[in-house]
Amino acid sequence: MLRALRLTAFALLPLLTAWPAAAQNYPSRTVKLVVPFGAGGPADVYARVLAQHLSEETKQSFIVEDRPGAGSIIGTDAVAKSKPDGYTLLIMSNTHTTNESLLPNKPFQLMRDFVPVATINYSDLIMVVNPKVQAHNVKEFIDLAKKEPGKLNYASSGPGTPYHMAGELFKAMSKTDIVHVPHKASGDARNSVLAGTVEMMLDAVTTMSELAKGGQVRALATTGLTRSPLTPDLPTVAETVPGYEATIWIGVMAPTGTPKDVITFLNTSINNVINLPAVKAAWLKQGAIPLAKTPEEFDAYLRKDIEKWAEVVRVSGAKVQ
């Protein structure tokens, strides 16, 4: 019997060591970073920085593929259905944690169909209006919205995105009636505000601050609890609406079943990139703060964020339009 068990164990040894051996050679071909948002937004911009440095570090190609649509659902679902081998990864944000409660019937569940890999960075949003809007600060905008309920609009890159939820939180806390106008991508939403077809947007400070400095939009406030180092003279929304806070963060997840040692390798590599002095300095100038976590820390962070936005959805009454 003992001899038989030894022979069985010997026969199974190649199967038991197959995954680690495969992971030791990872990556051996092109890795795809799927961004389920439009080109030019924070997720796309920082995914490209990540891809460039990971390619240099691993000597294999990391490429970015933008697959926007349905508030991130299209691209995310494609990754959920991909082979869990580490060669198709998801660039995600708090859009995904919001969608867990806002879109309960979506074709995937975040914490069931994905595993955390690494966080990338976070940044404030900036509240801007088209220059034609007769409001030069948050109070004036609230007064205008209350004077003409239902006539002012705000743009977002789709249901569940940080821009959408920041707008819904603003409506709930300021007690205003402003109409949500969803777009396919953040660039489209941005263009609507620039053209004046939509009056207001809460956009990433990293992408909208330059347009505000150039006078193409009027900046009213940022959305952190303290003023952004990128725009220190600009007040926060919380200075007018006490307690208001809305930020955007970006992370990486992989399909469930991806080998643990591949996840560990990716986490270490990504943390190495975001801790590079040149990367940190460039991001800080843009208003983005590097955010490094282990997969376990990211898991806890995700679960807490899901709970947070579930409460915002409940309090605000936000719905997919």
- CATH fold field value of the largest domain: D-Maltodextrin-Binding Protein, domain 2
Radius of gyration: 22 Å
The CATH class designation of the largest domain is Alpha Beta
Total number of beta strands: 10
What fraction strand? 15-25%
Low-confidence runs: 1-22
Would you identify the CATH architecture of the largest domain?
A: 3-Layer(aba) Sandwich
Which superfamily, in CATH terms, is the homologous superfamily of the largest domain? Bordetella uptake gene, domain 1
Rough outline: globular
Proportion in helices: 40-55%
Q: Please give the domain count.
A: 2
First-residue to last-residue Cα separation = 66 Å
Number of helices: 13
Average per-residue pLDDT, rounded, comes to 90
Structural class: alpha/beta
Sketch the major β-sheet.
10 strands, mixed
Summarize the helices and strands and which ones pair or pack.
Elements: H1 2-16, H2 18-24, E1 31-35, H3 42-58, E2 62-66, H4 73-80, E3 88-93, H5 94-102, H6 110-113, E4 114-129, H7 138-147, E5 153-156, H8 162-174, E6 179-182, H9 186-195, E7 200-204, H10 205-213, E8 218-222, E9 247-255, H11 260-274, H12 277-286, E10 288-290, H13 295-316
Parallel strand pairs: 1-2, 1-3, 5-6, 5-7
Antiparallel strand pairs: 3-9, 4-7, 4-8, 4-9, 4-10
Helix pairs in contact: 3-11, 5-13, 8-13
Describe the model:
With 321 residues, this protein is of the alpha/beta class. The protein has 2 domains: 30-122 and 249-316, 3-Layer(aba) Sandwich (D-Maltodextrin-Binding Protein, domain 2); 124-239, D-Maltodextrin-Binding Protein, domain 2. Helix content is 46%, strand content 19%. The chain has helices at residues 2-16, 18-24, 42-58, 73-80, 94-102, 110-113, 138-147, 162-174, 186-195, 205-213, 260-274, 277-286, 295-316, and strands at residues 31-35, 62-66, 88-93, 114-129, 153-156, 179-182, 200-204, 218-222, 247-255, 288-290. Strands 1, 2, 3, 4, 5, 6, 7, 8, 9 and 10 form a 10-stranded mixed beta sheet that branches. Helix 8 (162-174) crosses helix 13.
